[in-house]
Amino acid sequence: MAQSRPVGQRARSRSVRRWLPAAAGLAVVVATFVFLLPQVASYGEVWDVVSDLSWEWVVALVAATVLNVATFAPPWMAALPGLGFRRALALTQASTALSIVVPGGAAVGMAGSYGILRSWGFAPRPVATAVTLTGVWNQLANLAFPAVALVLLLLEGGRHPLLTTAALVGFAVFVAVVTGLTLALVSDALARGIGDVAARIASRALRVVRRGPVGWDGSAFVGFRHEASGLVRRRWHVLTFATLAGHLTVFVVLLVSLRALDVSSHEVSTVEAFAAWSLVRILGIVPLTPGGIGVVELGLTALLVGFGGDHAEVVAAVLVWRFLTIVPTLVLGLLAAATWRSHQRGAEVHSR
User: Fold this and answer.
1) What would the 3-class secondary structure string for the chain be?
2) Closest CA relative to residue 325, chosen from 278, 299, 287, 292
C-alpha cells in the first residue's frame, strides 16, 4: 500500500511526458494560425491576393506541384534496386503522409517506410540500408543548403546573422557526418568504433529529453557497412542527384507561389527566397509539430517579410505553398493505402 502512491505518481508522470509534446505542438499551431499570422496580414487580405490568381499562374502552380510529387520516388529507386517508380511513389506518399499527421516527423516516416517495404516482401537488410541511406542523404541536403544559400547571399551583397549561424553549424555537422560515413565504409573496425561513439552521443542527447538510450551500437554500423558499401560506390551520384532534385522541386513550388502571388524579385529575390527556405528547413528538422505545421509557416513568413516582401502577399504565398506541398501528399498517401494489395502483389511477383 505504501508503494501505491509512488507507482501512481510515476504513471501520471509518464502520461504527462507522453502528452506534453502533443499539447505543446497544438499550442504552436493554434498560436500561429489564430493569433500570429493574422497579425502579419488578415485572412481577408490574404484571400483578396489569392482570388486574383490568373489561370496561367494556376497552371504553373499545378505543374510545379506535379513535378515535386514525381521527384519523391527516384531516391528510393536508387537506394533499393528492384523498387519501380509506381511502388516507390506509393511508398513515399504513404510514409510522408504518416510523418505529417503523426508526431515524430522524419523518424515516423522512416519507420513507416521500413514496415511498408517489409510487407511487400523485400529482405530486412536491403530495406534497412535503403531507409538509412535515404534518411542520411535527406538530412545532409538539409544541412548543406544553408551554407550554399549563405554563399549566394553574400555574392549578392546581402547578409543575415541567423542564416550565417545556421549555415556554419549545419556545414560543421555536414562535414562530420560525411567524414564519419566515409570512415565507416572503410573497415569493420572503424565502423564499429564510429557506431559506438554515435550511439553514446545519441543516448546522451536523448537523455536530455528523458528518452533512450538507443537500441543500437557499433555492430549495427558494421552490418550497414557490409550491405551499403557496394551500393554507395555504385549509386552515390544517382542517389545524390535524385535527393537534390527532390528537395529543390519543393523550393520551385515556393518560388512559383511567390511570383504567382505578386511577390516580385525586387521585393524578395530568388536567392533571398532560397535562403529563407533553407533556414526554415533547418528549423523544421525539430519535430515540434507534425510536418512542422505552424513553425514553418511562421518562420518562413517572418524571413520573407524581413527580406522586403509585402505582408499579405507573403502570407498568401506561404499558405499556398504549404497547401500544395502537403495536401497532394496526404491525398496520394490515402490512395496508396487504399490500393495496398495491388502494390503488394506487384512486390510478390518481383520477389519470385
Assistant:
1) CCCHHHHHHHHHHHHHHHHHHHHHHHHHHHHHHHHHHHHHCCHHHHHHHHHCCCHHHHHHHHHHHHHHHHCCCHHHHHHCCCCCHHHHHHHHHHHHHHHHHCCCCHHHHHHHHHHHHHHCCCCHHHHHHHHHHHHHHHHHHHHHHHHHHHHHHHHCCCCCHHHHHHHHHHHHHHHHHHHHHHHHCCCHHHHHHHHHHHHHHHHHHHHHCCCCCCCCCHHHHHHHHHHHHHHHHHHHHHHHHHHHHHHHHHHHHHHHHHHHCCCCCCCCCHHHHHHHHHHHHHHHCCCCCHHHCCHHHHHHHHHHHHHCCCHHHHHHHHHHHHHHHHHHHHHHHHHHHHCHHHHHHHHHHHHC
2) 292
pTM, rounded to two decimals: 0.85
**Burial of 350 from C-beta contacts in 10 A (0-12 / 13-18 / 19+):** middle
Residuewise pLDDT in 10s, the chain (352 residues): 444 456 555 555 555 566 666 677 788 888 989 999 999 999 999 999 999 999 999 999 999 999 999 999 999 999 999 999 999 999 999 988 888 877 666 677 788 888 889 888 899 889 988 988 998 899 899 989 999 998 888 888 777 777 778 778 877 888 887 887 777 676 777 777 777 777 777 667 656 545 667 666 777 777 777 777 888 888 999 999 999 999 999 999 999 999 999 999 999 999 999 999 998 988 777 667 777 888 899 999 999 999 999 999 999 999 999 999 999 999 998 888 777 666 664 554 444 4
Place of cell 515535386: 68
| 106, amino acid identity | A
Cβ neighbours of residue 104 closer than 8 Å, sequence gap 6 or more: 287, 290
